[in-house]
Amino acid sequence: MAVTHNSLSREGSGGLLDISSDNSDSSNALLAPLDYIRRVHWRSLVIRLGWFLVPSFLQGRHLSDQARPAKLGPTAYLDGMRGIASLCVFFCHFGYQSYSLMHGWGGEGANFNIMRLPFLRLIYAGSPAVSIFFIISGYALSYRPVKHIRNRNFKEFASGLSSMAFRRGIRLYLPIVASTAMCVVLVRMGVYEWTRPITLDHTYLRNIIENHANIFPSAYEQWRKWAVMILDGFDLFSWQGFDGYRYYDLHLWTIPTEFRCSFYLFAVMITTARLQTKFRFLTVAVVMYFTYTRSRWDFLLFLFGMVLVEWDHIRGAHTSHSSSPTLPLGEKEADKSVSTPKAIFWQVLAIVGLYLMSHPDIADTTTPGFAYLSSLIPEWWDAERFRYMHGIGAAFFITAVGYLPRWQQFFNHPVCQYLGKISYALYLMHGPVTKAVGYHWQKMAWDITGVEGDAYHVGFVLGACFCIPTIVWCADIFWRAVDIPTVQFAKWYENQLIVKAD
Q1: Is the predicted pLDDT of residue 330 greater than 60, yes or no?
Q2: What is the model's pTM?
Q3: d(CA 257, CA 299)
Q4: Which of 46, 433, 439, 467 has the fewest Cβ atoms nearer than 10 Å?
Q5: How crowded is the C-beta side of 410, counted as CA atoms within 13 Å?
């Protein structure tokens, strides 16, 4: 930007560049351009910051290339499905603080609210969504390696798998470092103290009250606990549930599970890479059976994702022209038309899958429509009972959708695709933002509507109308500020360390 004599002279009332001024005035005149540049610099930063805070879906053509919607390919529907699942997890954690959500319709001879019916309860059911996460993760991580295995391109297989293994921890944990560090800052600033009285008043939140982190006597103690928590999350050698994140964000228990299952999946792919297809399927089936008998539902779902992706390669469900290990975008559409009898079969399987995912978390033996199904769960099953049917249901549903273009079209809708892009950010942000801001919105809504009888439900919905946009907005910002740069940083960092080809 050109700086003119006139523009500078207007900065003061005494004529900053007046040659008849004394030496002091002349000295001030020399500082004027610097002051102006500083003001322009900060003005530009403020404008850029303000524009960055605008949600990406409102930025249009000004959106950065990394955040711009990509061309959809035949597996893009899985991104959309993951986005919807992430939203359901958010609804679960938002709702269970006010209502008991674990019962199905009619469980224990009560709980006859319409929203507890099968299919409808999936809107706020978090556990089935986690099963969907794990299958899609197994699918996404296996997509490129399995393609290289089938093409007998073992050099690319080794290179690609090495790259994924190196970047996996960065991809999963760097956003967690940022989100939990944000929690520590909010706690130290006293933001959580502003909402603590709301969590202690059961007039408003009447069911599960999540942990509200306290201010430690010193910043050192607070940050030390945070650092230990982050490091403990990297433990690959224990199948015990990790509750280390519970203090700042209890929703993050799935991330160490994702990390652990990812590396076990990499080991299975390496072990079976050079086997013939039939023997690879047989070997993976044996591993899956062993995993099943140990009630390791999480790793079992990852393995199912691997099996499903190879089957999709075999049946020609999609072609690949991308080197990215994530779900490919920009691929050619394959012919997915199916005959009417087959279409009916896959539609029925999808519906059955949704029904099984509606399995109640508790009191399943007394819930109409699920009492018999609950009797099929083996007595030796050590994990939570609902994981059994939720995992089967998720496997049925994801498999069926791969054959149903109408379902894929739904998940390819721009809203679903957007939710897929911000899914990890939404997962990380909904807890801290609810505690810092969401409780204020909810209390404000209940103060308007009252909390007696149906007024409580009206207030809950009114509060949600403010909380949901706020959390989606914060997730959008976190996605662009942390999530996208994390992927770029992981690639850059790996490139700095690897041995370069001659």
Answers
A1: no
A2: 0.87
A3: 8
A4: 46
A5: 8
